[in-house]
Specification:
heterodimer, A: mainly alpha, about 75% helix, B: alpha+beta, MetI-like fold, 5-stranded antiparallel sheet, 4-stranded antiparallel sheet, 14 helices, about 55% helix, elongated
Chain lengths: ~325, ~375
């Protein structure tokens, strides 16, 4: 059976199954289990209404529980075993990780990524948002800077391979160097330590658009009166921006910052396609993929370390969300 | 705002210029890829894509003909070097002005075009700018012409050969269909599941609602990496293994927290009056959801579908883990990252074209649906 037909059948079965489930389960609840008639009508309606939310929620809770909650436990449990799933090693995987220089490099690099990329993307996003705010062609400019969001990390990496290519006739960087009279092309992806930053540029290029869109909406949301008052008091454009506007959108800046931070901790594609983790550019997600399919114990241990790094952000997110729903 | 005293200033020009600079900086890498994908392989390695509209100087070699006419005791061979099939093959776009020529491969541009050169032993050769040559030799050339090396301008040539090759012979056509096959069910199926859940979380009262919302917010940031090993093992145990079925499930689940979160945020903002008056009129929750909430939430549904579409189309990690690694089921990202970059690392034309094929669809979706995407992003993070 051609795979595309299988896909179509899946859509039909999936959508039909969902509709069928929701419709039939509601029908069963109202007509069979707690029918809204007879002597217990009041009690039955109340009971049906108490059960119904769970009917609505069940499929979502099921897939979330299976694919996202269970793996937290499952991964931790698996990480206590060695390459062979029957070979209990306790925290052995974590100990050997801590002793491995590769792991330390990837941890350190990941730390760099988590500092530099969110900072640079948020800063550039804010800059573009502010600069384009009053421009007649601001929307076109924003749309073009937003565009990399649609491009896959793999595609973006390829695009930047053309910029970084070790050949003055292909790579822009080397072409510019050649223009200034440096004859020998360099491979920027092999310069120790700094190559990390060249990789980060790719993600910054992608994420600036995201930061810009959200911050630009936040800037538009600032009450005009505060700005007018500041202008009347003689604030210059710099003061207006840093002392009036930025403090008012601080909450949004923090949201953007943390969203990008979380993304940074998960992205493995860029390192994987650009350097394959060589030349000291390994980060945790790509380091994990080195062990995937080979040593599940090690792979899950690294995944769990990533989880631990993300945990504070997660807790903070939940606290913020609780504040709002209350 | 422009008419407020103090805002309009000399900064205006600086703003225009710096935005222009930033936009160019952002666009240049993509333009480079786009231009390169239409260039001839030889031209890519000879000159940067930014020189694509200009002629490139290529060095080529050919042989003169052998049909000689005798003038006294000298044999004279005349003709056009571009008539030689070997020389011609260097210039698919037609040969341009010859700049220089030579007789040894080590120094192909030794002599300026148009100057007669003494080759010793009474032989002489001249190659003109338009390719015509005259070779004089005291001996009968027999059936071997004189070797000629030359440097010529190759006019800019744009071809769609790269696209033809990528789409027909490199397995990208297969990968394109695979990507589509993964993406469409993985985009459609989560929507309905998430919409029901979001409705329950937004408009139904039940104990534990707050906790569930918090859990969904928490799950938004759970790293996908955690799910890879346990879920693959589970898939293997229940017989799905690495397959399209598996990746559909996986994408459905991984998109679920964002879907529920986005849709709930949107649905909560719907006007309370509408929903309550419908309830007073005796609508059940199911009817209310299908007839009122779902149609009103269309913008949020569109926003989420775009996210999920872009995310599944662009995904590399989930595809690498949950799909088999044979050629028949590779998606485009895996194909590019593992096959093209690995084995054809130097073939820039093919790389550029493959990348462009893979980003074309998301770009179309992006530019045509940008409004919804922006609205969705804002619903997700700005209150």
């Amino acid at each position: 059976m051609p795979i595309i037909v299988q896909g179509l059948i899946t859509i039909l079965v999936g959508v039909g199954g969902c509709v069928g489930y929701f419709y039939l389960s509601n029908l069963a609840l109202d007509k069979v289990i707690f029918p809204a008639k007879g002597e217990n009508i009041g009690r039955n309606i109340n009971r049906a209404n108490a059960v119904r939310p769970w009917l609505f929620l069940f499929p979502a809770i099921f897939v979330l529980g299976l694919y996202l909650v269970y793996p937290v436990v499952g991964s931790f449990w698996r990480s206590l075993f060695g390459r062979n799933p029957n070979d209990f090693v306790g925290f052995g995987n974590y100990v050997s990780l801590a002793q491995s220089p590769d792991f330390r490099i990837s941890f350190f690099n990941n730390f760099l990524w988590a500092i530099v990329v969110p900072a640079a993307s948020t800063f550039l996003g804010l800059l573009v948002a502010q600069l384009t705010d009053k421009l007649s062609w601001g929307n076109i400019a924003k749309s073009l800077i937003f565009m990399p969001m649609a491009i896959s990390f793999v595609g973006a990496s390829l695009i930047w391979k053309f910029v970084y290519a070790n050949d003055a006739d292909i790579g822009l960087i080397n072409a510019v160097r050649a223009m200034f009279g440096f004859d020998n092309p360099i491979d920027v992806l092999q310069i120790p330590f700094w190559n990390n930053f060249f990789l980060m540029v790719i993600l910054i290029w992608i994420q600036t658009g995201f930061a810009m869109v959200i911050l630009s909406a936040a800037l538009r949301g600032i009450p005009e009166e505060t700005i007018e008052a500041a202008i009347l008091d003689g604030a210059n454009p710099w003061q207006l921006f840093f002392k009036i506007k930025v403090p008012q959108i601080m909450a949004t800046i923090v949201v953007v910052w943390t969203t990008i931070t979380i993304l940074v901790l998960k992205v493995f594609d860029i390192v994987y396609t650009m350097t394959g983790g060589n030349f000291g550019t390994e980060i945790l997600p790509s380091y994990m993929m080195d062990f995937m399919f080979r040593d599940d114990g090690r792979a899950t241990a690294i995944a769990f370390v990533i989880m631990l790094v993300v945990l504070p952000v997660m807790v903070w997110n939940i606290i913020e969300a609780r504040k709002e729903t209350r | 705002m422009d008419n407020i005293a103090g805002t309009k200033s000399s900064l205006t020009w600086a703003t225009h210029l710096s935005v222009l600079a930033l936009v160019l900086l952002w666009l240049i890498p993509t333009i480079g890829l786009f231009v390169s994908s239409f260039r001839d392989r030889d031209q890519i390695s000879e000159s940067g894509w930014w020189q694509a509209p200009f002629a490139v100087e290529l060095t080529a070699r050919g042989r003169t003909g052998t049909e000689a006419t005798q003038e006294g005791d000298v044999y004279v061979v005349t003709g056009n070097i571009y008539d030689d099939p070997e020389a011609k093959s260097y210039f698919p776009g037609g040969g341009g002005e010859i700049v220089a020529f030579g007789t040894s491969g080590r120094n192909p541009g030794e002599f300026e075009a148009g100057t007669p050169v003494d080759l010793g032993d009474g032989e002489s050769l001249v190659v003109n700018g338009d390719g015509t040559y005259e070779w004089r030799t005291p001996e009968d050339p027999g059936d071997r012409g004189q070797r000629v090396y030359f440097a010529a301008e190759s006019p800019p040539s744009f071809t769609t050969d790269n696209y033809e090759q990528v789409l027909t012979s490199d397995g990208m056509d297969r990968a394109f269909i695979n990507t589509l096959t993964v993406t469409i069910p993985a985009t459609i199926i989560p929507i309905l599941i998430a919409a029901f859940a979001a409705y329950a979380l937004a408009w139904m009262d039940f104990p534990g609602r707050g906790v569930l919302i918090a859990v969904v917010v928490g799950l938004l940031v759970v790293p996908l990496q955690l799910a890879l090993v346990p879920m693959l093992n589970l898939h293997n145990r229940i017989g799905i293994g690495q397959s399209f079925m598996g990746i559909w499930f996986a994408h459905t689940a991984f998109g679920m927290p964002l879907a529920v979160y986005l849709l709930r945020n949107y649905m909560v903002g719907l006007p309370r009056d509408i929903i309550e008056s419908a309830k007073v009129d005796g609508a059940t929750d199911f009817e209310l959801f299908i007839r009122i909430v779902l149609p009103l939430s269309l913008p949020a549904l569109a926003a989420f579908s775009i996210f999920q579409f872009l995310w599944t189309w662009n995904d590399l990690l989930v595809a690498k883990v949950f799909l088999p690694s044979d050629d028949a089921s590779k998606v485009m990202t895996v194909k590019i990252a593992d096959d093209l970059l690995g084995s054809r690392g130097g073939d820039w034309g093919i790389l550029a074209t493959a990348a462009f094929v893979s980003i074309a669809v998301p770009l179309i979706v992006f530019f045509s649906m940008q409004r919804f995407l922006v609205r969705g992003l804002l619903a997700g993070s700005v209150k």
